[in-house]
Amino acid sequence: MATIDDVAKAAGVSKGTVSSVFSKKRPISRPVTERVLEVAKGLGYYPSHVARSLAIKKTMIAGLKMPISKDSVMSGFEIQMINGVIREFSKQGYRLLLDTLPEHDDPTQFSIDPVDGVIMLNPRKQDPRIERYNQMGIPLVLIGRPDPIEEQISYVDNDNRHLSLQVGQYLINLGHTAILFLNSSADMTVAIDRENGLAEAFQQSGQSYDQVHVMNYSRRQHANPTEYGYVSLKNIYEPNRFTAIITDTDRVALGVMRAARELGIDIPGELSVIALSNDATLAQEMTPALTSVELSAEMLGTEAAKILVEKMKDVDIVEQKIIEAKLVIRESCRLLK
Amino acid sequence: MATIDDVAKAAGVSKGTVSSVFSKKRPISRPVTERVLEVAKGLGYYPSHVARSLAIKKTMIAGLKMPISKDSVMSGFEIQMINGVIREFSKQGYRLLLDTLPEHDDPTQFSIDPVDGVIMLNPRKQDPRIERYNQMGIPLVLIGRPDPIEEQISYVDNDNRHLSLQVGQYLINLGHTAILFLNSSADMTVAIDRENGLAEAFQQSGQSYDQVHVMNYSRRQHANPTEYGYVSLKNIYEPNRFTAIITDTDRVALGVMRAARELGIDIPGELSVIALSNDATLAQEMTPALTSVELSAEMLGTEAAKILVEKMKDVDIVEQKIIEAKLVIRESCRLLK
DNA sequence: CTGAAAGCGCTTACAG
DNA sequence: CTGAAAGCGCTTACAG
Questions:
Q1: What string of DSSP letters covers A101-166?
Q2: How far apart (Å, rounded) are the C-alpha atoms in residues A281 and B220?
Q3: Residue A335 included in any domain
Q4: For residue A26, which nucleotide's C1' is closest to its Cα?
Q5: Which of residues 230-249 of A touch B (CB under 8 A)?
Q6: Residue range(s) defining the domain that contains residue B222
Q7: Which residue numbers delimit the HTH lacI-type domain (chains A, B) (predicted)?
């Protein structure tokens, strides 16, 4: 690869001049510009991003910290969210560095990524990385709530508690109190938030939460979300035991519906189904069309990216944003008679 | 941010020593190592990836060049493929830089990304970027075939022509010759390859290809793939005009099935449906389960990544790999009586 | 409008 | 096992 020096020499100018021709940060005369460009082209010269980054201390790259488990694929939720992040960064001229590398405990191996800021997915409890980014002076925005919540941390999240409170109210108003809840993995903060929200709905309406049977997704037990729904219903359904079922995602609901067909259960006649969906493209195509919650995953991503772009200009900016989820009523739930 | 100099001074050693403590490239005595590490921790020092990259001329980052259209979301195919790429790179210790920035004609704006190699999606005809990467000495692997095909270019691809030849033979053997083909966008090389393959199937069996009606997806006409399938069938179906339908993806087939339900067409009784699928997770959940082609999108990604890793070690390596697609027969096609 | 030179924060061959 | 110094390829304040 030709360097700026090669071009400077071949064009008979200083490298400062070559630099200016490419960066346009200071005006260079027409003839000189043309000569430099021509020489550069002949030599196949392109400025080195790395060298420039070192000099200006900016990379125009934003990082997305997202652990990827060995066996599983990205969920519809993650994909949509990433889509939102990419779209926004792309619009603002940033590239995205996907860091899916597993974490290292060896402090010696923890090198700073070449990024101007990072978005971190699903922070864990007391996540030590948050402090580390802070220490490094790298702007950070979380997707998902930090635990514990702190004033100085920027993040975007759904209000999962409120969302399942609404779902609970909706079902209770339809007369459903015997509910099977196919929740997500127990170790996720969302799972807890959702349970609390549902419990609150029951409490508010004076119903006993005992009528709710909660199950959790587990990667060991279930091959995939659809199987989770299918197997769960097949195994534990008895007529009249549940009148409604809340699923983690629409994929889970897909499995539930398949099982229901095989068991001869009419949806929504005998059983109402509602999904706390992660991937809304499917819901409207199912038969019956699935009533679900629209999480706006893409918007979560977009908003996180927007906040990060602001923070990369001014580290002191802090913004916390709750993205509204909305209940989309379709055809899979019915008033209990 | 503390630099290597700060640490060196505070620890009373040279920066070469600090460097060695972190890179482990030469042995440093136990006591010195500990002192350096302690000082580094106190100062919140982490090595700068950018500076190191400049010095060693390697970034351990691979690029994924993938244009993202303003309005559309990634397809299931793209997502799975990216998944494969990420997984393989992650395994090999590389990070992934997603470059979705639109292309610039201004040569002045074309800066080299901080990557050791790149994977490029869907190369266009006579794609000028291929030559450019070559010129820059950056290892390149394509996903999708280059046009024209050249000996020195590495790529992985499906054999789309052969794949639709197989599908054609399968349908013809079932007695279907009046076929509606809901193909992908006309401007993609896959669309052409597929048509050729299907035509070949007809020719081989001595059937007239005139019985095939080909349509192309168009972003302007169709809101999304599902709508494409739905609208197409609604608009042009007349009893006995077609006995089988080949769809671009399973999403398109989903729309076809919805339209068929509304029109009272029995699948597969009256109409056989088969998808040249991009996203196989759906096919098995549909009713009836969709017969489709498994493209192994994830494997395309994995293989491309593997080849790139090799090329990043030795630029001269060239590998071209065809990933076998296989027909997965489920329930949506039936022998024509 | 252009040049000379210091600086960005690392690595590494050379010397001891 | 450790240090001093040159080098990686850019940018930029200073000077003219």
A1: PPP---GGG--B-S-SEEEEES--BT-HHHHHHHHHT--EEEES--BS--TT-EEEEE-HHHHHHH
A2: 19
A3: no
A4: C1
A5: none
A6: 160-294
A7: 2-56
Residue pair A263/A321 in contact by the 8 Å Cβ criterion: no
Tell whether the model's pLDDT for residue B190 goes beyond 60.
Answer: yes
CATH number of residue B16's parent domain: 1.10.260.40
Sign of CA dihedral B312, B313, B319, B323: negative
Say how many CA atoms lie within 13 Å of A228 toward its Cβ: 26
Considering only the beta carbons, identify the residue of A1, A79, A112 that sits closest to B49.
A112
Nucleotides of C under 7 A from a protein CB: 1-5, 7-13
Burial state string for B100-121 with b = 16 or more CB within 10 A and e = fewer than 16: bbeeeeeeeebebbbbbbbbbb
Asked if A81 and A25 count as a contact pair (C-beta separation under 8 A), the reply is: no
Tell me, what amino acid is at B177?
Answer: T
Which residue is nearest nucleotide D8, judged by alpha carbon to C1' distance?
A: B55
A44 CA to D7 C1' distance (Å): 22
Same domain flag for A175 and A288? yes
Question: What residue is closest to D11 (Cα–C1')?
Answer: A55
Same domain, B177 and B276: yes
| Residues in chain B within 8 Å Cβ distance of A298 | 73
Give B100-115 pLDDT, tens digit per residue: 776 655 555 665 789 9
Sign of the dihedral through C-alpha A15, A17, A21, A24: positive
**CB proximity A74 to B under 8 Å:** yes
Question: Structurally, how many domains does chain B consist of?
Answer: 3
The separation between the first and the last C-alpha atoms of chain B, rounded to the nearest angstrom, is 76
Structure tokens that stand for A247 in this block? 């699923």
Q: How many residues does chain A have?
A: 337
C-beta separation of B143 from B120 below 8 A: yes
**pLDDT averaged per 10 residues in sequence order, chain A, 337 residues:** 91 93 89 92 92 94 82 73 89 88 61 87 81 88 87 92 96 96 86 94 95 91 89 86 92 91 91 84 80 90 96 92 92 91
Alpha helix stretches (DSSP H) within chain A: 4-11, 15-23, 30-43, 49-56, 76-91, 128-136, 160-173, 189-204, 225-236, 250-263, 280-283, 297-313
Q: Identify the CATH number of the domain in which residue A240 sits.
A: 3.40.50.2300
Q: Which chain B residue's Cα is nearest to A61? A: B97
> Degrees (nearest 5) of the Cα angle B125, B130, B136?
165
CA A208 to chain centre: 34
State the residue for tokens 């082609």: B293
One domain, residues A239 and A133: no
DSSP result, A292-306: EEE--HHHHHHHHHH
User: Residue A82 has what pLDDT?
Assistant: 87
What pLDDT, on a 0 to 100 scale, did the predictor assign at position B106?
A: 58
Beta-carbon-side half-sphere exposure of residue B185 (alpha carbons within 13 Å): 10
